[in-house]
């Protein structure tokens, strides 16, 4: 492109610098000669950075993306971008705190689900438990015993005959 043509385009289609983001990318607006939307562009800090954004390794700030796509009419300010960055950091810290609490709850649940100490004592020293009277022996906790299986109506139906039987509803006490 010749120098004269570039100068002529700059005169006819001026480019206005609108702002920059925290990473150093610059944003421009090219007014349209016809009534309609203006063209909005971004010039990346380095040409190598463009490929990082195109390949989705990095992302432009949401505020600037909204401005580029004409979703937002006014460009974002540096203060707005800084506040959003601080908010993102707070969210990451809060997520880390919640993750740590969740890990602690899982560890606590695993510790509670482990076999109790009483059953280990009885299995390790059977001679000691033989000397203790039957009424004073420790009984295993209900949580230590395997829970009874739930009732399976299909298994019960297969055991009986296929003949219909009468059924009477039972009133429940509240």
Plain-language structure description:
It is a single chain. With 174 residues, this protein is mostly helical. It contains seven helices and three strands; from the N terminus they run αβββαααααα. Strands 1-2-3 form a three-stranded antiparallel beta sheet, covered by helices on one side. The radius of gyration is 37 Å and the shape is elongated. 2% of the residues are buried.
List keywords for this structure.
single chain, 174 residues, mainly alpha
Q: Can you count the beta strands? A: 3
Rg measurement, Å: 37 Å
Determine the mean pLDDT: 76
**Which descriptor suits the 3D outline?**
elongated
Strand content: 5-15%
Q: Main sheet?
A: 3 strands, antiparallel
> Largest beta sheet: what is the strand line-up?
1-2-3
CA-CA gap between termini: 89 Å
Helix and strand sequence: HEEEHHHHHH
Indicate the structural class.
mainly alpha
Quaternary structure of the protein:
single chain
Which residue ranges are poorly predicted, with pLDDT under 50 across at least 5 consecutive positions? Answer: none
Fraction of residues in H or I helices: 40-55%
What is the helix tally? Answer: 7
């Amino acid at each position: 492109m010749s120098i004269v043509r570039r100068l002529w385009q700059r005169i006819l289609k001026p480019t206005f610098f609108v702002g920059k983001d925290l990473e150093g990318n610059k944003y421009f607006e090219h007014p349209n000669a016809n009534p309609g939307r203006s063209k909005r562009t971004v010039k990346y800090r380095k040409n190598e950075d463009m490929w990082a954004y195109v390949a989705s390794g990095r992302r432009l700030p949401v505020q600037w993306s909204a401005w580029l796509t004409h979703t937002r009419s006014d460009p974002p300010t540096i203060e707005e971008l800084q506040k959003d960055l601080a908010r993102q950091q707070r969210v990451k810290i809060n997520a880390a705190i919640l993750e740590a609490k969740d890990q602690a709850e899982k560890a606590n649940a695993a510790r509670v689900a482990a076999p109790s100490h009483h059953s280990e004592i009885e299995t390790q020293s059977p001679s000691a438990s033989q000397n203790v009277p039957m009424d004073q022996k420790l009984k295993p906790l209900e949580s230590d015993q395997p829970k009874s299986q739930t009732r399976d109506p299909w298994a019960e139906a297969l055991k009986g005959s296929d003949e219909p039987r009468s059924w009477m509803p039972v009133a429940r006490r509240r």
